[in-house]
Write a structure and sequence with these properties.
about 290 residues; alpha+beta; 13-stranded antiparallel β-sheet; 5 helices; about 40% strand; disordered N terminus
Length: about 290
C-alpha cells in the first residue's frame, strides 16, 4: 500500500504536464542559438583574440628569476638564488629590497648533457609554481601552474621540441602583453627549431588573455602551408559560444570555413593569426642561443 501511494505521489500527473519522467523515451531538444556574428566578423574576433601573442614559458621564467633576484637570504631565503621559492610564513615575507614573496616553486632554463657523453644534447625550460610575489610598487606577480619545453638536439643545430603550458599567470608591470593582461593556458605543443632561427609549431589546447578564450586543434604554423596557419583555431564570444575557423590546406591563404557552436557553417572567411605566434617563437629560438657557443 505504501509503495502504491509513493508511486502515485512521484509518478506523472494526469494533467497537461508533458515533462519526461524516469523510464520515458522522450528526449528534450537542446536549444541552439543563432550566431551573433557573420563569418568575417568571427574571423576578426579571432585576430583580436590573439593580439597579445601566444603564451610561451620563456618570458615567465625570466620574470620569475628577475623577482627572485631581488630577494635575500632572509626573505625568501633557501634556494632563491638558484630559482627556487619556498616561504613558510602565512602572510609571506618582505625582503630588504621591498619585494614581497609568498608561495612555492622553481624554474630552470638551459642546455644539459642528458646522456653523459660530454656533449650538450637537451635544452630544458620549465617552471612549476604556486603563489604570488610583488614588487615594491605593489604590482603583484601571481602564478600557479606547470610548464615545460624540452628540445632534443645541440646548441649549434637545434632540433625537435615538445612541451606543455598549464596554469594562470599575471603581472601588471610586465612588458609582455599577455602577462600584463593576465593569462590562463592549457596548451600542448611540438615542433622544430634550427640554427637559422627557423621553426615549426603544432598546438593543441588553448589559452585565455584579457578574458578572451582561444582554442586550437591540430593547429600549426610553418608546416605544409609555410607562413599560413593550418588546422583549426576558435574564439569564444561573450555569451560563451565558439566560432571555429578551419583553414583550407589546399589554398594555404589563411582562409577557411567558419563554424558556429560546433555545428553551423557560417561560410568562408580569412584570419591571418601568424604574426601573434611569430614573436613568441622567435623569442623561444633566441632563448636557445642556437648557433652560439655550446
Amino acid at each position: 500500500m505504501w509503495f502504491s501511494l509513493l508511486f502515485a505521489a512521484c509518478g506523472p500527473s494526469s494533467g497537461t504536464d508533458s515533462a519526461p519522467f524516469f523510464g520515458s523515451d522522450e528526449v528534450s531538444e537542446p536549444h541552439h542559438p543563432d550566431a551573433a556574428y557573420t563569418a568575417d566578423e568571427a574571423a576578426q574576433l579571432l585576430v583580436d583574440g590573439v593580439q597579445y601573442g601566444y603564451p610561451m614559458p620563456g618570458p615567465l621564467v625570466n620574470l620569475w628569476k628577475e623577482f627572485l633576484g631581488n630577494g635575500d637570504e632572509t626573505c625568501p631565503g633557501g634556494g632563491y638564488i638558484g630559482g627556487g621559492l619556498s616561504t613558510t610564513q602565512v602572510d609571506g615575507c618582505v625582503a630588504d629590497s621591498g619585494y614581497w614573496y609568498n608561495g612555492v616553486g622553481g624554474s630552470g632554463m638551459g642546455w644539459t648533457d642528458e646522456d653523459w657523453d660530454g656533449d650538450q644534447d637537451t635544452f630544458f625550460l620549465n617552471m612549476k609554481t604556486d603563489g604570488a610575489m610583488a614588487d615594491p610598487e605593489g604590482n603583484v606577480f601571481s602564478f600557479g601552474g606547470d610548464m615545460k619545453i624540452e628540445v632534443t638536439g645541440t646548441p649549434m643545430e637545434g632540433g625537435p621540441f615538445e612541451g606543455y603550458m598549464l596554469g594562470s599567470y599575471a603581472y601588471a608591470g610586465s612588458d609582455v602583453p599577455w602577462i600584463r593582461e593576465g593569462v590562463s593556458t592549457a596548451s600542448y605543443i611540438d615542433g622544430t627549431v634550427d640554427k637559422t632561427g627557423a621553426w615549426t609549431l603544432n598546438v593543441d589546447g588553448g589559452f585565455s588573455v584579457a578574458g578572451v578564450a582561444v582554442s586550437m586543434v591540430n593547429f600549426g604554423i610553418h608546416g605544409v602551408c609555410g607562413d599560413a596557419p593550418t588546422g583549426t583555431i576558435g574564439v569564444r564570444d561573450a555569451s560563451g559560444y565558439w566560432y571555429d575557423l578551419t583553414y583550407d590546406e589546399t589554398t594555404c591563404d589563411s582562409c577557411g570555413t567558419v563554424t558556429f557552436d560546433h555545428r553551423e557553417s557560417l561560410g568562408h572567411a580569412c584570419a591571418n593569426v601568424t604574426p601573434a605566434f611569430v614573436e613568441s617563437m622567435s623569442t623561444f629560438a633566441a632563448d636557445l642561443s642556437i648557433g652560439g657557443p655550446g
